[in-house]
Amino acid sequence: MIFVFITFYLSLILITPLSSSEVSISVTPKTVPKSGDNVTIQWSGVDSPSKLDWLGIYSPPNSSHSDFIGYFFLPSSPGWKSGSGSISFPLINLRSQYQFRIFRWYESEVNPKHKDHDQNPLPGTKHLLAESEGIGFEPARGPEQIHLAYTGKEDEMRVMFVTPDGKESTVKYGLNRENMDQVVGTRVVRYEREDMCDAPANDSVGWRDPGFIHDGVMVNLRRGKRYFYQVGSDSGGWSMTNSFVSQDGDSNEVVAFLFGDMGTATPYLTF
Prior knowledge:
CATH class of the largest domain: Mainly Beta
Number of helices: 1
Oligomer: single chain
């Protein structure tokens, strides 16, 4: 009986690691002030660091391991070979919390047929080392995604923007930054999951809350003048003060803009 017990004990030692370090991961700030602000991911305790160790970006936090929206390889951080490091990058407000997870990926698990947008093999998610707590954005920071557009009338300018809740918002504008004395309201529209044509945009993996789209028109503009404007509300917050120059029908100068590939990119790898 004693011999059987010793044999069983020795077997446990052989199949169980003698020691293991716990990988820690932290995110600062805990709450991001506004969309586009940087977050810093720090980690430590990674045993025998590998060039294939990677950090996955998830939103919402309950996403499955395979549904990351972006990733970094840990060697992008100086000093990664010590098992510690940090990465900073801007985070876009998707109106849902984020979570970050660190995985180990082995050369033997690389599948050359499973590729990302840049034709690189997508990393595997079998070996989770650590995951962060969920982080989000501060509320009532004002509208986002502000865009201007002509309406077809020389004395008008359309402004569109997005809020998270669709509550009443207005546009303040005027010739003086300190006295934007003209105000117009906005109409609100929104699209839903069922409005999207196909997966993944209309399922749980690809759907992202678009927020509420506000549309307001600044009217009675004087020709060729610089106008200052803000959009938002007292309850939901106001945008920064922006400006534009109104149309000048008497000008003989023609300015044309031709847009093709806008070059929009993220600072991390994506699908």
